[in-house]
Every structure is written in C-alpha cells, then in structure tokens.
Amino acid sequence: MLLNEEIREGVIIIRLSGYLVASNPSALRELVEFARRHRAKRLIIDLRNVRFIDSRGLTTIYAVVTTCRSQGGDAKLTGMQHHIREPFYHLRLDKQIDHFTSPEEALQSFTG
C-alpha cells in the first residue's frame, strides 16, 4: 500500500500503490497512522499507482486531509488515474480537496 515516502521542502510526499478498499482495512489504517505519526501538516498523496479505490478508501483519504487541516496544514492529491478520478468527482471531493497532475505541481502550490 505505502510505496514510499520522501520529504521535499518540508512537505511529506507519500506514494501509494495497490488497492485502497474496505476489504483491506490494514492499508487504510496504515495511511491514517502515517499521517498521525508524522504529524503531517503538509502532505502530498500520490495516487498514480493505486489500482482501485472504493468509497471507504476515498473516505479515508478525506479523513487524512481533514486531520492535516485540523493541525494547521493541508494535504493535496496527485496522479489520479481515470478510474479514481470518476468516483472522486462523483462524491464532489474535487470541491474539498486540491488535486494536481504531479507531485511537483502540488509542491509548488504549497510553496507559492
């Protein structure tokens, strides 16, 4: 699930892979715990290698974003493939979570 992580200009970039689904609750918990453990205030979640996401996975991502915001920061998404973008838009999360094509674009939005 967590492919790798790096820190650039004070922003944590995590790259996810595989399936973010209700039937894989450990992967979802791993994402939430990662954000809490690192007290991530500025986070980029790269979804480029996520093969499938269900509503539980999207809800978990939303929870991570709101956790970052409650700590005075923000989280942004990048690399959404078509099969992820459709449910994301359907749930109107595009109105609540910033999303970008690449981590570099998202990073630039943090640094201005």
Structural commentary:
With 112 residues, this protein is α/β, with parallel strands linked by helices. The protein has one domain (2-103): STAS domain (Transcription Regulator spoIIAA), CATH 3.30.750. The chain has helices at residues 25-37, 55-70, 82-90, 103-111; strands spanning 2-8, 11-20, 42-53, 74-78, 99-100. It has a five-stranded mixed β-sheet, sandwiched between helices. Helix 1 (25-37) packs parallel to helix 2 (55-70). The longest helix is centred in the middle third of the chain and has 16 residues, at 55-70. The protein starts with a strand and ends with a helix.
Separate helix tally: 4
CATH topology: Transcription Regulator spoIIAA
Strand count, sense and barrel status of the largest sheet are: 5 strands, mixed
Mean pLDDT across the residues is 87
Helix content: 40-55%
Radius of gyration: 13 Å
- In CATH, the architecture is 2-Layer Sandwich
- How many strands in all? 5
Spatially, the strands of the biggest sheet line up as 1-2-3-4-5
Report the sheet-strand fraction: 25-35%
Number of domains: 1
- C-alpha end-to-end distance: 30 Å
CATH fourth-tier homologous superfamily: STAS domain
Poorly predicted sequence stretches spanning 5 or more consecutive residues: none
Please identify the structural class as seen in this structure. Answer: alpha/beta
Please provide the ordered H/E string of secondary-structure elements.
EEHEHEHEH
Q: Which geometry do the CA atoms define?
A: globular
Summary tags:
alpha/beta; Transcription Regulator spoIIAA; 32% strand; five-stranded mixed β-sheet
